[in-house]
Amino acid sequence: MVFYFNYLILTMNEDKQSLSRKDFLSFTGKSIAVGAMGSIALGVVNPDQLSAQSDVSTTSPTARVPAAPEDPIVLERWKSDVDQQSGPTPTPLPPDQRVGYAVVGLGHLSLEEILPALSSCKKSKLVALVSGSREKMAKVAAQYGIKPSSCYSYESFDQIKSNTEVDVIYIVLPNGLHKEYTIRGAKAGKHILCEKPMANSSKDCSDMIAACSKAGVKLMVAYRIHYQPHNLKVKELLENKTFGNAKFVEACNSQSSANPDHWRHKKALAGGGALPDIGLYCLNTTRFILAEEPSEVFAYQYSTPGNPLFKEVEELVSWQMRFPSGIIANCVTDYNVHEKRTYTVLCDKGWLSMDKAYAYKGQQLKSAKADGRLERQEEIGIAEVNQFAEEMDHFSDCIINKKSPNTPGEEGLKDQIIMEAIYKSAREGKPIQLK
Ligand code: NAD
């Protein structure tokens, strides 16, 4: 009887496609019961042994294990189609094959989002730090297991050239410093991932692109929205015209700041106020989901008189963009109101609307369309991912497989040119044509 049971397992492993788990369990359950009864009858086992043997099997259920590192292991299915399926299983590269990142600047974004995200990356790993504070860097290095020899100050930054573990320099500094550290990083022969906005002027963006091209290194702007699944879904639905043709986009990104001494309120370091910091999401995401470039902009700008926050940079920018297809986008950004991060796309057969559209998490995507005498509204639930990890892994994949990133320096330059036109329109009170 025991022999028969083993035979069944072998048969199932060889023919796992044709024997379902349910069949397997019912079949083996019966054979265990029959085998056990036979054993008792023969006086081979006592009843205590019986319960241990019949309740627990150490035989693993079937799993498909593809050889390619990027193909996920496919585990035995157990959920019915009534529920959302889990998986696929993550496919991390072995640590010695992952791309090494040096993170420059240990402020809010690095400490709260990027360093934790690196721990969940599959193709990227943290190997070095750059900071102006020795004390802060020592603590962070200890937390993330970074060697003291891979910790650099802004003065010793260029020595990173000889650190063979560093493949990418991720610049997470105030906007006005992106250009300097991109050019120094490119000269050190490292690929560059630069936070948004890429720089403070289109001239600076062009210089950064030229420096990376001259050094033969890749340059990517950290536009995480391009790697965020809800936004990718919207792009796909618009591309497939699931709701017909897009006609109008309304986008808003606002928050409230309190510290007039912070670099975000200093023109030289920030480049501008709400527009380059958060309004940029409305601009870049609209271009991304529509897959179209605006041909004209018209803008208004406002700052509350006497508010020290807006001595150097603006509080509110509201602008419209006209696209060659006829689509109009209406965007607004503000540094002095309660947080709101949304967009809506009105199409001729329905609409799509995203709440928390540019937030780190919590995206809520809704759609509506007519169904006879009904209006069908639907919430499209998509599993959340870590946007920063997706973004870094995309860049690492481009490096490993010698591909161009989806958001190269040219993407940052395009936004900068449009932002310059938006400011010009607000100043001059008239629409500005874009080439
Ligand atoms: P932060 O002020 O929290 O951190 C900036 C870091 O730069 C600090 O560690 C600071 O010490 C260092 N620094 C070096 N030289 C400095 C100087 N001269 N003045 C001020 N600080 C100096 O800022 P943050 O919110 O982490 O933003 C950093 C960058 O990341 C900015 O470009 C910002 O636009 C971008 N950002 C992107 C996202 C995103 O979702 N992709 C979110 C937030 C910020």
Number of helices: 12
Q: In what range is the share of β-strand residues?
A: 15-25%
Terminal-residue CA separation: 81 Å
Succession of helices and strands:
HHHEHEHEEHEHEHEHHEEEEEEEHHE
For the biggest β-sheet, the strand order reads 14-13-12-11-7-10-9-8-15
Helix content: 25-40%
- Find the structural class using helix and strand composition: alpha/beta
Question: Spans of 5+ residues with little confidence (pLDDT < 50)?
Answer: 1-52
Shape: globular
Radius of gyration, CA atoms, in whole angstroms: 28 Å
Number of strands: 15
Distinct ligands: nicotinamide-adenine-dinucleotide
Average predicted local confidence, pLDDT: 89
What labels describe this entry?
435 residues; alpha/beta; nine-stranded mixed sheet; six-stranded parallel sheet; disordered N terminus; binds nicotinamide-adenine-dinucleotide
The gist of it:
The chain has 435 residues and is of the alpha/beta class. The protein contains twelve helices and 15 strands. Helix 1 (2-14) packs antiparallel against helix 2 and helix 6 runs parallel beside helix 7 (202-215).
Structure description:
This protein is α/β, with parallel strands linked by helices and 435 residues long. It has twelve helices and 15 strands. The chain has helices spanning 2-14, 21-42, 47-55, 108-119, 134-144, 178-187, 202-215, 229-239, 267-270, 274-290, 387-400, 409-428, and strands spanning 99-104, 124-130, 151-152, 168-171, 191-194, 219-221, 246-256, 296-302, 316-322, 328-334, 336-347, 350-355, 364-371, 374-380, 432-433. The strands form two sheets. The protein has a nine-stranded mixed β-sheet with strand order 14-13-12-11-7-10-9-8-15. Strand 5 (191-194), helix 7 and strand 6 form a beta-alpha-beta unit. Helix 10 crosses helix 12 (409-428). Mean pLDDT is 89; it is low at 1-52. The structure holds nicotinamide-adenine-dinucleotide. Nicotinamide-adenine-dinucleotide binds next to helix 4.
